[in-house]
Design brief:
Elements lengths: L7 H24 L5 H25 L4 H17 L7 H13 L2 H14 L2 H5 L4 H76 L4 H29 L10 H14 L6 E5 L9 H21 L2 E10 L3 E10 L14 H12 L3 E7 L2 E9 L4
Parallel strand pairs: 1-2
Antiparallel strand pairs: 2-3, 3-5, 4-5
C-alpha cells in the first residue's frame, strides 16, 4: 500500500522526525539564555535525527537485519527521551514498529509495558503532586497503547501488501509457465508432428517415387533445424549468461555484445548503437540496465518470432536510456495480439520506478520495444 508513491511508514517517520526537530528548535530559541545545556541537547538531538533519517529507510528495505533493527529502534527511543512526551513522542511509534516487524509482537508488547511502568519516574523525581503524577501516567499509558496499535496496524498493512505481491508474482509465473507449455505444444509439438509425417510419407514413397521421398526427407531436415533453433532460443532466454554489473556505459555495451554472442548460434541478428561518450553509472542503476537488456531479449524470444534485435543506449546529463527493439518476420504468425507482462517485466518495472525511472513496453509494426529510462544519480 502506497500513498503518492510512499508507504504509510514513510510518512510516520517523516512526521516524527520533523516533530522532534521542531521541539528541539523551540527549546533552543526560548531557553538559550537561561538554560545553556539546551544547546548541547539540541546538538545531540540534531545528530540523532540525522542518524535516524539514514538508518530507518535502510532498515525498511532490509527488516531482517537484526543489528540494523536494534540500532534504528535505539536511536528512535533516544529521540523520544530527548523530545516532548506529547508532541514528539511519535518517534516511539517508529521504534515499536521496528521492533514489531523485525522481532515479534511479544517483544513490542514488552517494550510498551516497560515504558508504561517507567513513565511515572520522571514526574516523581520532580516531586509533582500525586494527582498530577496519576494524570500524567494515565495520559502516557493511553498514548503508548495507541502507538502500539499504530505499530501493529503498519506491520499488518505491510504484511498484506507483501501477500498481494507474492500472489501477483505467483500469477505472473503461472502465466509464463502456461506460455511455455503453449510454445512447446504449438511450436515444437507441431514441428515434431510435421517431421514424423514427412518420415512416414518418405517411407511410403520410397518404393515408387524415390525422388519425392528424398524431397520429404529434405523437408523433415529443414523443420528439424528450425525446431533446434527455436529450442536454443528458448533455452538462452530462460537462462541468460551471468555477467558482472556494469559501472560505465561502455561496460554495458560489452554486456550487450556478450548477449549477442550468446544468441549467435540461434540465427538472430544483433545491432548495438552505443552512446557518443562513456559515462559512469551508479551500481544500482547498472544492475537495472543489465536486467533490462536481458529481459528485452528474453521477452522478444518468449512472445514473438524475432529475426533481429537492436540495442540503443543513449545518455543525457541526468538520465540514461536503454531501448531494446525486436524485429520479426512479418509473415510469421504472432503469438498474441498483445504481449503479456510476465514476472520479469513486472519486476523490472518495479525496480526502475523505485530508482526514480520508468519502463515502457509497446508493440511496433515489426515486433516489440522495451524502453528503460533511469537517472544517472541514485534516487
Amino acid at each position: 500500500m502506497t500513498v503518492a508513491g510512499h508507504t504509510p511508514g514513510f510518512y510516520l517517520v517523516a512526521f516524527s522526525l520533523v516533530s522532534v526537530f521542531l521541539v528541539i528548535m523551540e527549546r533552543l530559541v526560548t531557553g538559550y539564555h537561561t538554560f545553556p545545556y539546551v544547546v548541547a541537547q539540541a546538538i545531540v538531538g540534531c545528530i540523532l535525527i540525522i542518524i535516524a533519517a539514514i538508518l530507518t529507510p535502510r532498515w525498511a528495505k532490509n527488516p531482517d537485519n537484526t543489528l540494523l533493527a536494534v540500532a534504528t529502534a535505539i536511536v528512535n527511543i533516544l529521540l523520544f527521551i530527548i523530545g516532548d512526551v506529547t508532541i514528539s513522542s511519535s518517534v516511539l511509534a517508529v521504534a515499536l514498529w521496528v521492533v514489531y516487524r523485525s522481532f515479534s509482537m511479544r517483544a513490542c508488547l514488552g517494550l510498551t509495558i516497560a515504558f508504561i511502568i517507567f513513565s511515572p519516574i520522571p514526574h516523581i523525581l520532580r516531586h509533582l503532586p500525586a494527582e498530577r503524577v496519576i494524570r500524567e501516567f494515565i495520559g502516557s499509558t493511553v498514548l503508548f497503547i495507541l502507538y502500539l496499535f499504530l505499530a501493529w496496524f503498519l506491520a499488518s498493512l505491510e504484511a498484506g501488501a507483501e501477500r498481494e505481491r507474492a500472489l501477483a508474482i505467483e500469477a505472473a509465473v503461472s502465466k509464463e509457465q502456461t506460455a511455455a507449455a503453449r510454445m512447446l505444444h504449438d511450436g515444437l509439438g507441431q514441428q515434431l508432428v510435421a517431421i514424423t509425417m514427412s518420415f512416414n510419407v518418405a517411407k511410403a514413397l520410397k518404393p515408387t517415387n524415390e525422388e519425392a521421398a528424398w524431397e520429404e526427407l529434405e523437408h523433415a531436415h529443414t523443420v528439424t533445424n528450425q525446431a533446434l533453433t527455436d529450442l536454443r532460443r528458448w533455452v538462452r532466454a530462460l537462462d541468460p549468461p551471468t555477467t558482472p554489473t556494469p559501472h560505465t556505459t561502455n561496460q554495458l555495451v560489452e554486456i550487450m555484445k556478450s548477449l549477442s554472442q550468446t544468441f549467435s548460434s540461434t540465427g538472430l541478428e544483433f545491432r548495438i548503437i552505443p552512446p557518443s561518450e562513456d559515462q559512469p553509472i551508479p551500481t544500482p542503476i547498472g544492475e537495472i540496465l543489465h536486467i533490462a537488456a536481458q529481459e528485452g531479449v528474453a521477452n522478444a524470444l518468449r512472445h514473438g518470432h524475432p529475426t533481429a534485435i537492436h540495442f540503443h543506449l543513449s545518455t543525457t546529463d541526468d538520465t540514461v536510456t536503454l531501448m531494446v527493439e525486436d524485429h520479426g518476420d512479418p509473415t510469421a504468425p504472432a503469438s498474441t495480439s498483445e504481449k503479456p507482462e510476465g514476472y520479469g517485466l513486472r519486476s523490472l518495472r518495479e525496480r526502475a520506478e523505485h530508482a526514480g525511472g520508468t519502463v515502457t513496453a509497446t508493440p511496433t509494426p515489426t515486433g516489440f520495444q522495451l524502453t528503460t529510462i533511469l537517472p544517472l544519480r541514485e534516487a
